[in-house]
């Protein structure tokens, strides 16, 4: 009976995977990995360097990377993108420039234009670069453009009808698969039978809902009767939910007060508020409560005061995607359209830092093998 219930939940994940695959052309929907794909931490938060960073080779391409509005130091996917860029500098000898949009993101296109003027490869970190990358890419057909989390259902056009060109690549991830694993971890560790999920922004092309759905499926694979409450900080087009740690802290505190003992966030920089709430609520209740991070291994990047409350993190290997886009351009293997990073290529996964999931790792690896197969 246990096995039947488990594979029933996995069937739900299979449906989610089909939905995710519908976001792009499956004929292009595979990622080539080239070593170094194991779990690694993003670099320590640093200030982005001014201008171009020196590199050892004059033959390597120039890369222009434009972060999401929080830039380096977000302890999330911007830091992961930076890790991929630094790896490309070290291993491939690229030179690069970095830029961060203003707070409202209104100068995204301007920054992409500037990057294209001096770079061979331009990368926008986040789905909000889609339309601007399409427009700037059309004007620069000799340059390669990559967009992290491109969520277009039809990759041939953007919402304004501007065609994507053969030089536009979408770097997309099977977040529902990694979220399934941390959902299973949450259920295996829960003693109250109640879990929480905090999403940053709702209705962003279904992007954050994939995290929620995978988390719920994984938890219910372990315990079909488990209770899961979900809350989103904002709803599109208000994207402040990704940069609102105070609101995430309040939501998490209410969830802990309601009996949840493990909470997972997919809320970008807002996740810091969850970690604070996990510590504060644990101290107040006199019992250990858990938080689960997202994108990068947040045990390694968060404030030392809260790291012992981070059970695991769902890893979204933006670093791998950035590195491999650059390498593919150097190898002459670039094709327009989406490239999907899933469990089969370690494009998503879960972190083991802190050792808090060591006792359930065999079970998590079993679920991982089931999903891959």
Give an account of the 3D structure:
The protein is an alpha/beta fold. 38% of the residues lie in helices and 19% in strands. It contains ten helices and twelve strands. It has helices at residues 2-21, 77-92, 108-118, 130-139, 175-189, 207-222, 245-257, 271-285, 318-331, 361-372; strands at residues 62-66, 95-99, 121-125, 144-148, 168-173, 194-202, 227-235, 262-266, 290-295, 310-316, 337-341, 348-350. The strands form two sheets. It has a six-stranded parallel β-sheet, sandwiched between helices. A six-stranded mixed β-sheet has the order 7-6-8-9-10-12, sandwiched between helices. The longest helix has 20 residues, at 2-21. Mean pLDDT is 84; it is low at 1-58.
Rg value: 20 Å
Helix/strand structural class: alpha/beta
User: Spans of 5+ residues with little confidence (pLDDT < 50)?
Assistant: 1-58
> In one word, what is the shape?
globular
Quaternary organisation of the protein chains: single chain
- Largest sheet entry: 6 strands, parallel
Name the beta content range: 15-25%
Number of E strands: 12
Mean pLDDT: 84
Order of neighbouring strands in the sheet with most strands: 2-1-3-4-5-11
